[in-house]
């Protein structure tokens, strides 16, 4: 950490001499330790998935949802400081509602991302605030089809075919790069999402996790953002785990290739 | 005598009024708007060649009736809203007529106590083709196949209802509007002058003008 | 709203029985016109200012400068036309300075209409706004409530009907500059002769593309006071003195009294 002791990392609104904002970079550190979140945009919809680390056996399975809905057609998942994420989603909902109150139409995903990008960026400009400790993946369907975006603490925001963040992001990204997004159908994508989260959990095996998957699809959810039905979730979980044996073998091969 | 209630404050003293005949009609390739050109202050014709068809965006127009000042101010506001909205749209995309009409409705409803504005918003967009929205005085909104408004429209409700056809050809639709407006002008003292039309299609905007010696036959 | 409406007849007869007579029309008393010609635009105004039935000023100026090449003629409440015109002229100059461009007529018009609309007609300014800018020559008008009109020729004010009659008969698209000036002056004269609220002289302003604006103050003076046939001066002493009483002027003396410095106890 070159920044420590220099003083350039203490305030938000100050650049270091080589043009970096350390507070923003520290915010990314908060994200890197959170549970893995991914998003997949396929030809007929968007899938969001998250690896929910179980911190206590007393937590009720199936409660404490991590994926949230912004508007009927848009969902968000994020890794990092969870309360920051809830504040971010609140703002996203406000933006979607304010748009609707003027134009009587749902906001388009790119337009919402424009607004949220500006909002998040604002938290990097003043020393009375700190940047968001989250990276959010936002997915939805509008008149122009499916969209998937990822937004970082700096406020930068890009459109993706497949996006991953959190602890297992490197592994997830390399898996996502293998997919053919032109051909991919949403039911297949749900299974793959489960599998990628499962793989990404490998490095963190000492802790248990719960899988949460949501989707937006014209065909299956009438363009609405919903959690996948229980039977599909079970099927996806089974798909993710039944490959375990093969995967281990493959993994060994993979490891060898890396070396 | 107790029973009489006259709304003497309906128009402020000396206010310029668009006692008007306006309409907009969907047809095969898009939509056509039509209007007379008379603007009055009391019994004086303040302008005999007014343009009541106002551009809101590339292929979205509105017909204005009521107070000239109010409708111009509202149209200017909507135009501004849509410029900002369009700037945030992806390249090569334009706002839909529905969006424009909803903004009109929002402004007309929120300021209903201070406005005398009856507006027809019509336009062409790639998503919906031609569409027509009527926003009458209270600030409600009505999606229609065709809309008529203004003081002269009362005389042509029946005729329009009888003669409107779905999916007309362009020439047929121009004739429909020309005949309807010439009747409205004939019977309404507050309407007159030339008939202006704007044709909105995929190809863009086309303007037409008809002089009294033609449309009066 | 359509057709003839007799509701007010009942109301008016009811009101007159209660002692409220039908209000008399009050004239704002002005004739102003404007007319375009290829390559430029002309505006003109009469110079009578009235307050009720009294001629308040026989040679007032109703042509206002918004910018060097944008002028406007004002009818309605004199104070309002003057102040609103000065305000917009000021803002227009600041705008032109900040944008580093010559101001446009449409900009002036938009500023005027938004200001007037804000005041909902309580500012009684009716203006014909004309000028040349980088986009050409323009002729526009604004009414007190904030509505605007575009036209090749326009008239406003109580004499506008007389002026419009002249404009409607003599306007052509291909007027020369001189013909356009004559047409405007004729239209104003029609107002001067036929409208009680208008009178005195004709002011004209010509704005041509690529040239400086020209103001012709008192372009026509059809109402010069003629020499009286006789002198009506009376010799001193014509009026007889019946009684004389002289009183002393009361002297008021003012002196400045100074006091010594007040004693203040600063110990406490």
Automatic annotation (TrEMBL), chain A:
GO terms for cellular component: nucleus; proteasome core complex, alpha-subunit complex; proteasome storage granule. Transmembrane segments: none annotated. It comes from the Eukaryota. InterPro entries: Ntn_hydrolases_N (IPR029055), Proteasome_alpha (IPR050115), Proteasome_alpha-type (IPR023332), Proteasome_asu_N (IPR000426), Proteasome_sua/b (IPR001353). Residues 241-259 have a biased composition (Acidic residues). Residues 234-259 are annotated as: Disordered. Residues 8-30 form the Proteasome alpha-type subunits domain. Pfam families: Proteasome, Proteasome_A_N. GO terms for biological process: proteasomal ubiquitin-independent protein catabolic process; proteasome-mediated ubiquitin-dependent protein catabolic process. Keywords: Cytoplasm, Nucleus, Proteasome. It is found in: Cytoplasm; Nucleus. GO terms for molecular function: mRNA binding. The proteasome degrades poly-ubiquitinated proteins in the cytoplasm and in the nucleus. It is essential for the regulated turnover of proteins and for the removal of misfolded proteins. The proteasome is a multicatalytic proteinase complex that is characterized by its ability to cleave peptides with Arg, Phe, Tyr, Leu, and Glu adjacent to the leaving group at neutral or slightly basic pH. It has an ATP-dependent proteolytic activity. The 26S proteasome consists of a 20S proteasome core and two 19S regulatory subunits. Belongs to the peptidase T1A family. This is Proteasome subunit alpha type.
From TrEMBL, chain B:
It comes from the Eukaryota. The active site is at 20 (nucleophile). One of its GO terms (biological process) is proteasome-mediated ubiquitin-dependent protein catabolic process. Its main location: cytoplasm. It holds the Pfam family Proteasome. One of its GO terms (cellular component) is proteasome core complex, beta-subunit complex. InterPro entries: Ntn_hydrolases_N, Pept_T1A_subB, Proteasome_bsu_CS, Proteasome_sua/b, Proteasome_suB-type. Keywords: Cytoplasm, Hydrolase, Nucleus, Protease, Proteasome, Threonine protease, Zymogen. It catalyses: Cleavage of peptide bonds with very broad specificity. SUPFAM superfamilies: N-terminal nucleophile aminohydrolases (Ntn hydrolases). It is found in: Cytoplasm; Nucleus. One of its GO terms (molecular function) is threonine-type endopeptidase activity. Belongs to the peptidase T1B family. PANTHER family: ATP-DEPENDENT PROTEASE SUBUNIT HSLV, METALLOPROTEASE TLDD. Component of the proteasome, a multicatalytic proteinase complex which is characterized by its ability to cleave peptides with Arg, Phe, Tyr, Leu, and Glu adjacent to the leaving group at neutral or slightly basic pH. The proteasome has an ATP-dependent proteolytic activity. The 26S proteasome consists of a 20S proteasome core and two 19S regulatory subunits. The 20S proteasome core is composed of 28 subunits that are arranged in four stacked rings, resulting in a barrel-shaped structure. The two end rings are each formed by seven alpha subunits, and the two central rings are each formed by seven beta subunits. The catalytic chamber with the active sites is on the inside of the barrel. This is Proteasome subunit beta. The lineage of its organism: Eukaryota, Fungi, Dikarya, Ascomycota, Saccharomycotina. The gene is PRE3.
TrEMBL record, chain C:
CDD domains: proteasome_beta_type_7. The active site is at 30 (nucleophile). GO terms for molecular function: threonine-type endopeptidase activity. InterPro entries: Ntn_hydrolases_N (IPR029055), Pept_T1A_subB (IPR000243), Proteasome_bsu_C (IPR024689), Proteasome_sua/b (IPR001353), Proteasome_suB-type (IPR023333). It is found in: Nucleus. It is an enzyme of class 3 (hydrolase). It holds the Pfam family Proteasome. Residues 222-257 form the Proteasome beta subunit C-terminal domain. GO terms for cellular component: nucleus; proteasome core complex, beta-subunit complex; proteasome storage granule. Its EC number is 3.4.25.1. It catalyses: Cleavage of peptide bonds with very broad specificity. The 26S proteasome consists of a 20S proteasome core and two 19S regulatory subunits. The 20S proteasome core is composed of 28 subunits that are arranged in four stacked rings, resulting in a barrel-shaped structure. The two end rings are each formed by seven alpha subunits, and the two central rings are each formed by seven beta subunits. The catalytic chamber with the active sites is on the inside of the barrel. This is proteasome endopeptidase complex. It comes from Spathaspora passalidarum (strain NRRL Y-27907 / 11-Y1).
